[in-house]
Amino acid sequence: MKALFLFLLIVPLLSSTSLSMDPPAKLWEKWYYPGLDFVHFRDIELTPSGDLFITGSIRCYTYPDYDRVALLIDQEGEIIWEVPHEFASASGRDGAVLPDGSFVLTGDATLNTNPTFRALFIHKLSPSGETEWTRIYDYPLTHEAGYSITCLPDGGFAVCGRVHGTGHHYAGQLWLLRTDENGDTLWTREWGITADWGETVLFENNELCLLARGRTDSLPTSGPHLLFYDLDGNYIGGTDYPELNYQYPADMCSASDGGYTFVTGANCVIWHTDRYGEPLWWHDIHATPGDRHEGFCVRRTMDGGYVFSGWYGYFEGPWDDGGSESNALATKKGWLVRLDAYGNELWNLKNNTGHDNFFYSCVQLPAGGYVAVGTWGGGAGYLVRYAPETGIEGGEVIQGITLDAVPNPFRGSLSVSFDLSEPGHVNLDVYDFSGRLVHRLLSDEVLSGRHSAVWSPGTSVPSGCYLLRLVCGEETVVRRCVLLR
Q: What whole-number distance in Å separates Cα of residue 103 and Cα of residue 359?
């Protein structure tokens, strides 16, 4: 109850314009498990109570009892609980928070029965971090890995990654798996020729959308693709982006218009499509020409824009004739970029600490501000919290709309009211905290004045925290609400 009370103290009002903003100030940074052999925090997910679920790899070769694969941290950076490895070594790649407050994660692990090769795993945790079950999915004598996991309406899961991998870089094919709520396999699919994989899987529009790297005879470009499957595993179709040939995908999220937005890892671009994968727009994510950089994550923000994370560095001297780095690459910096709903840059910051650091994942907090998670030179987990943005350059923010919701929390129905100072086209939507559209309350031309709508979720919508988002012209207002069962 205390966590819920604190969660409701601050209700964010976000007004959006396509103007540049001042980068947010750093509130604090913290280090975890320093001095161990290998520590990477790979993914961060926000829980309904505002805590941070982190998956990754924490290894100590001398004392394996120190090894961890996931942990829960509060917004002040304090560890609530930790999840030990169950195998000789394991790497958590992606996690998800379920509607009932439990957790699931996927990754790859070395099994004691076959220590030369890696296997894909799914690990299910209770709300208190206790193991409910672990499932292994593996072919003998090859590498398998899970890179992304998403929850499905029947309580089961879809996972994408790599199968039949060989060599140091795990060359193989894309692997897509669907399981029931207990992790038992319903079906699997493979795609690609060689050196291919599935980076992200989302459930949208009653189908599975995958961000993949690779090629087939029908999709010959060797770069990012969007692939679509129905829930029975039937291949619906895919896309080809010749402009991105030889680039590799980094991450994808759903967009507020029902489409998809993904980013590439090298030569970073943000690329937006409709729900069928057809391109609508794309932009370079700004970096100085010739500098080195890499992207890892893109997340949708509460105003319909995006936040992107990676690392950024530059050479202090020329390359030698052999094409290698003759002078040391200057310190790599965690990289965080905020973009609006059309991919225009709002701010761009580098976490210059004098020590290598990487931002593998990031999330916007419900009360504003951001948390970036990654590694400190590979030898410590790293967490940085940033304040909400302050100050907007180049124009005035118009406060022409208001949005209210009562009662909050609510059980049966939520009464939503809003005021407009001028007439315009209004979209009033409900999203969950992963950015998925739950329900559209209104999409119409509306006169100035006060208006109202009612959201009655029904029993199919689980209890939890949701976001009401009102858009009218260039103005956006977001309110948080809590559904109790």
A: 22
Tokens for 127?
């709300």
pLDDT for the residue 308: 98
Say whether 339 sits in a helix, a strand or coil. Answer: strand
Report CA dihedral (248, 253, 254, 256) to the nearest 10 degrees.
Answer: -110
CA dihedral 51→52→55→57, nearest 10 degrees, is: -110
Distance, CA of 79 to CA of 41 (rounded, Å):
14
d(CA 52, CA 70): 11
Element (H, E) at 348: strand 345-351
Cis peptide before 64 (omega within 30 of 0): no
* CB 55, CB 93: distance < 8 Å: yes
* Amino acid identity at 188: T
Contacts of residue 8, Cβ cutoff 8 Å, sequence gap at least 6:
408, 409, 480, 482
Cα Rg for the chain, rounded, in angstroms? 22
Owner of token pair 């029908």: 218
Reduced 3-state DSSP string for 84-128:
ECCCCEEEEEEEEECCCCCEEEEEEEEECCEEEEEEEEEEEECCC
Over the stretch 158-192, which tens digit does the pLDDT of each residue have?
A: 999 999 998 655 678 999 999 999 999 999 999 99
* Whole-angstrom distance, CA of residue 248 vs CA of residue 222: 9
Task: Kindly report the pTM of this predicted structure.
Answer: 0.79
Phi then psi dihedrals of residue 65, to 5 deg: -65, -15
DSSP codes, 244-286: GTT--EEEEEE-TTSSEEEEESSS-EEEEE-TTS-EEEEEEPP
Spatial separation of the C-alpha atoms in residues 408 and 354, rounded to whole Å: 46
| Domains along the chain with CATH numbers | 22-386 (2.130.10.10), 401-483 (2.60.40.3080)
What 8-state DSSP symbol labels residue 24?
A: P
Tokens of 451: 């208006």
| Cα dihedral 186/192/195/198 (nearest 10) | -50
| pLDDT (tens digit per residue) in 343-401 | 999 999 999 988 899 999 999 987 788 999 999 987 899 999 999 876 433 333 335 67
